[in-house]
Amino acid sequence: MIIAVDGPAASGKGTLSKGLARHYGLPHLDTGLLYRAVGWTVREHLEAADFEARAIAAAQNLDAAHLDDVELLISARTGVFASKVAVIGPVREAMRAYQVGFARQPGGAVLDGRDIGTVICPDADVKLFIQADSKARMERRARQLEARGENVDRYALYHQIEERDARDMANPHGGFYQASDAHLLDTTLMGIETALRAAVAIIDEAMARKGKH
Ligand code: CDP
Ligand code: CDP
């Protein structure tokens, strides 16, 4: 069973995907971490003439099985670096095989990101597109960062998230849109448990319809 979960920044797709992975006993891949790792590797070369070449090399050499220092990778700044390398076609191409391989392991998997239902797993058994109002998403990310001890300027964070979402949606190589067969789940007014229950209901119904679950 392959479950594809996509959505904008801080929509709750990661938390939801972890919950789904636990619920169905499947492995989970947060594909944002791959982009964050590449962005982090080239963070000091954003203005360099060879930025793209460096980012492509970093993606080709990424050891996805050993994404270290995940705490660092989760910071808001790293999200911005990630979205800058994510617009480079060959960067996405370099990491595609790993993601497809992860999805196709025996038994299946849950993957979350931006292009899972559209590019990485167009044949996923169930696709979810997670949405939430931008102010709610900013507040969630602010609390998440504060819990990690980061100082948060909510005004700046709001604009940073809006800007990153806009770049992701305009990314010609990004595949970031709701697939025609994806189920939309708006979690603006949902807590984590409610969102998980809603997602499980959608998945169980979809699998029952396919006669698979
Ligand atoms: O993966 P993504 O960036 O979409 O979001 P996340 O990291 O799963 O969620 C961002 C923050 O919002 C986390 O601290 C979650 O605990 C919180 N959250 C929430 O408050 N309510 C939800 N329905 C989902 C997530
Ligand atoms: O958790 P949040 O949604 O804030 O970010 P993330 O999922 O860790 O992704 C960071 C950035 O990586 C995104 O803003 C995208 O630019 C890029 N990304 C992507 O292009 N495709 C994916 N499948 C996952 C992330």
Automatic annotation (TrEMBL):
Molecular-function GO terms, alphabetical: kinase activity
InterPro entries assigned to the protein according to its UniProt record, in alphabetical order: Cytidylate_kin, Cytidylate_kinase_dom, P-loop_NTPase
Ranges for domain Cytidylate kinase: 3-203
Location in or out of the cell: Cytoplasm
Keyword flag Transferase: yes
Chemical reaction(s) catalysed: CMP + ATP = CDP + ADP; dCMP + ATP = dCDP + ADP
Binding site for ATP: G7, P8, A9, A10, S11, G12, K13, G14, T15
Catalytic activity, EC: 2.7.4.25
Record bears the keyword Signal: no
Name of the top EC class for this enzyme: transferase
Signal peptide (from-to): none
Pfam families (alphabetical): Cytidylate_kin
Sorted UniProt keywords: ATP-binding, Cytoplasm, Kinase, Nucleotide-binding, Transferase
HAMAP family, A to Z: Cytidyl_kinase_type1
Family: Belongs to the cytidylate kinase family. Type 1 subfamily.
Official protein name in the record: Cytidylate kinase
Organism: Devosia rhodophyticola
